[in-house]
Amino acid sequence: MTLVDAHHHVWDLAVRDQDWITGPELAPIRRDFTLADLEPEARAAEVSATVLVQTVTVADETPEFLALAAASDLVAGVVGWTDLTAPDVADELARLRELPGGAHLVGIRHQVQGEPDPGWLLRPDVRRGLVAVAGAGLAYDLVVKPHQLAACVQAAAGLPELTFVLDHLGKPAIADGGLEPWAFDVRALAALPNTVAKLSGLATEADWARWTVRDLRPYAETALEAFGPARLMFGSDWPVCRLAASYGEVLDTARELTAGLDESERREIFAGTARRVYGLSAL
Q1: Which residues contact 259 (CB under 8 A, 6 or more apart)?
Q2: 227-254 burial code (b ≥16 CB/10 A, e <16)
Q3: Close Cβ partners of 201 (under 8 Å, ≥ 6 residues apart)
Q4: What is the pLDDT of residues 121-175, one digit of tens each?
Q5: How many domains does the structure of the chain reveal?
Q6: If you ran DSSP here, which 8-state letter would residue 238 be given?
Q7: Which residues cross the membrane (predicted)?
Q8: Using CA atoms, how far apart are residues 114 and 252, in angstroms rounded to an integer?
Q9: What whole-number distance in Å separates Cα of residue 122 and Cα of residue 268?
């Protein structure tokens, strides 16, 4: 089966600090992680293509990622960052497309999870930026916390022309074992046809040292029921996943969580959805 990893990161601390990597609990990932580090792990897992996702709200990162994709046989797409509130956002998206590797730009993401306003996505200036993302033929990745899901539903309902991709299933509180109100809001988002989600980042929302597949299953099953396999995609969230699991363990866990599906449904989750949503087949 062809495998696509629809969500991973890289960073070089000599180029740019990752200011979100703070505190002793994150010390294991406070070092450089490059494509050279990822490639042997991905190849060992028989991953044939990946999507490289932004890490910080810095404009220079996206051109760097596009150049990495242009030089890589592994990275098929880039979800980058640009200031959605800028009046020239449409022009900036066009400029990114003209850069080396610009054809690999498949989506835009902002660290909404860090915004103090739970309705940030609904601001008029942000909505104008999202309209530009749709106009550029790109997807929009949602990195949010559960209390922000209601705004995601409103934003997606108001922009049916834009595909919204929910990263990490909206970061449910797996370590606490609570399903609601997260499950209600995820179902509301999935009820909209222009939404998809990533089966990613779950182990790091659980107890890093003691999680089991059983802990993750209620959340994966909720997403499977709500979105269906054709609107779910696998992502490793490497190297952040290393706080709780290795690359291989994350992939094995996703396989176990989807073992009850038939082969065609698993193909969707592990390749088809990502290729279709991000247009990877054109690259």
Answers
A1: none
A2: bebebbbbbbbbbbbbbbbebeebbebb
A3: 7, 167, 168, 169, 171, 235, 237, 240, 241
A4: 999 999 999 999 999 999 999 999 999 999 999 999 999 999 999 999 999 999 9
A5: 1
A6: B
A7: none
A8: 30
A9: 31
CA–CA distances in Å: residue 249 to residues 25, 141, 189: 20, 24, 29
Q: Which of 273, 277, 282, 272 is nearest to 103 (CA)?
A: 282
Contact of 203 with 250, CB cutoff 8 Å: yes
Helix (H) or strand (E) holding 158: helix 149-158
237 with 204: CB under 8 angstroms?
yes
* CA 66 remoteness from chain centre: 17
Alpha carbon dihedral 248, 252, 255, 259, in 10-degree steps, equals 160
Beta partners for residue 198, in sequence order? 233
Which residue reads 């703070």 in tokens? 22
- The DSSP H or E segment spanning 78 is strand 75-80
Each residue of 181-240: pLDDT tens digit? 999 999 999 999 999 999 999 999 999 999 999 999 999 999 999 999 999 999 999 999
Q: What is the three-class DSSP state of 119? A: coil
Q: Specify the CATH number for the domain of residue 52.
A: 3.20.20.140
Sign of the dihedral defined by the CA atoms of residues 70, 104, 37, 113, in that order: positive
Structure tokens at 197: 């989600």
* Cα separation, 25 vs 142, whole angstroms: 25
Q: Are strands 139-142 and 164-166 parallel, antiparallel or unpaired?
A: parallel
